[in-house]
Amino acid sequence: MTRDQHSISRKQIDENALKVLYRLHNAGFEAYLVGGCVRDLLLGIQPKDFDVTTNAKPEQVKNLFRNCRLVGRRFRLAHIVFGREVIEVATFRGHHDSSEEEPAANSGKTQHSRQNDAGMLVRDNVYGSIEEDAARRDFTVNALYYNIADFAIYDYANGVRDLNDGLIRMIGDPVTRYREDPVRMLRAVRFATKLNMRLDASVSGPLLEFSTLLQSIPAARMFEESLKLLAAGKAVANFDMLSEYNLFQQLFPQLKSYLKAKSEPPYQMIRQTLADTDARIQNGQRITPAYLFAALLWWPLQARQESLLSEGGLAPMDALNLAASDVFGRQVQTISVPKRFSIPAREIWQLQSRLARSKGKRAETLLTHPRFRAAYDFLLLRAKTAGADKDQLTKLAEFWTRLQKEVGPVEVKRPDRVADEAGPSKRRRGGRGGRNRRRKPPVNKGE
């Protein structure tokens, strides 16, 4: 598609992305915008990220940019850093041979790929041409390239046609592609909801059968993917579709039993949490994963706490803290929630009992707690989705709402650092070495 056949203008492209494109082009390399940014620009959506692809090897890219760092083990990428912005540059990927073994260190060969027994790619540093790169991409709407040399769009998989038809279609055999990278199942759902498009039958058909492949994905990667699904303004739509294909159950195994009874408080609370998250994003308000995980894991926490209390010998707060450790201990096996979010989530849980007990001066003091607002919002959520104890929670929420109006603005204490919340560090006495050494008096060389 030549420049006069499409609507993309350089005015719509990020300034730093243009710098990267032109420097690669002026150095004699091919340089293209690729994937989601081209797709979104064609749909009239302003992209959040601009990705670049080129025939330059990662080391060659690094030689062109002082602000470049190379990342990735499965596939080597170059990140060009402009302050807080990162332009990702990938070398054209080529076709791989799953039977090829990693070359010896002294063989001089730098291209290799590797698959595990399940067919998932664990090493994929195979470089090729732009045609091969297009064939390696997951969905047709992502195999679109904008060439900085002639401002044309190159469409290798009828992606423009599928955009016009509102169809998410896989390049190649979906089953093989899901085995190569199970996260593609999550991406299929995310693109369908984000772009208001439908999944092709060949894409949606295998999802139920192969949903358990997500269990093989590293938990750290799943954290990033979960945020893309739940913290980008389409959480409810993603939740509905993920649950339909047994994918949400892989992300949050502890919620499986609560997803079956849609009229019960646990399910209602999960869905209301995601609806509130979408509303805040649409209103330009901030959200925190800490609150999100606190709300999603509340009912597994309650079940575990009740189990510990029934065994006897624990105070309610001790049972809560132990239950919180158990619940997050299980969750991080699938989604690795960083401590900077899990610790505040636990504080939100702990504050629920303090909100129920605090009166008078203690209540006013609690207003200054750095997590009070999140805990208060969580109390409102519980009251909105409660079952038998709805009246009690509603009265409690009304009390705290009224108190905030009466007291007015308060100075909120600064939250402690995660390191401090995790426990005070042990300072050694006497400095390094842990010994309380006495300083020797200075030697007077004149004596």
Low-confidence stretches: 98-110, 418-437, 443-447
The fraction of residues in strands falls at 5-15%
* Structure classification: alpha+beta
Largest beta sheet, briefly?
7 strands, mixed
Quantity of strands, as a count: 11
The tally of helices reads 21
Average of pLDDT: 88
The largest sheet has its strands arranged as 3-4-5-2-1-8-9
Q: Rg to the nearest angstrom?
A: 27 Å
Question: What's the helical proportion of residues?
Answer: 40-55%
Distance between the termini: 91 Å
Q: What does the overall shape look like?
A: elongated
Describe this structure as you would to a colleague.
The termini are far apart. The chain is elongated, with a radius of gyration of 27 Å. The chain is 47% helix and 10% strand. It is of the alpha+beta class and 447 residues long. The strands form three sheets. Strands 3-4-5-2-1-8-9 form a seven-stranded mixed beta sheet. It contains 21 helices and eleven strands.
Outline:
Helix content is 47%, strand content 10%.
Jot down its keywords:
447 residues, alpha+beta, seven-stranded mixed beta sheet, elongated
What's the structural blueprint in terms of helices and strands?
Layout: H1 15-26, E1 31-34, H2 36-43, E2 51-54, H3 58-64, E3 68-71, E4 77-82, E5 85-91, E6 112-115, E7 121-125, H4 130-136, E8 144-147, E9 153-155, H5 159-165, E10 167-168, H6 174-180, H7 183-194, E11 198-199, H8 201-204, H9 207-210, H10 219-230, H11 235-244, H12 248-251, H13 265-282, H14 289-296, H15 298-311, H16 316-331, H17 339-357, H18 360-366, H19 372-385, H20 390-407, H21 418-421
Parallel strand pairs: 2-5, 10-11
Antiparallel strand pairs: 1-2, 1-8, 3-4, 4-5, 6-7, 8-9
Helix pairs in contact: 7-10, 7-11, 13-19, 14-17, 15-16, 16-17, 17-19, 19-20
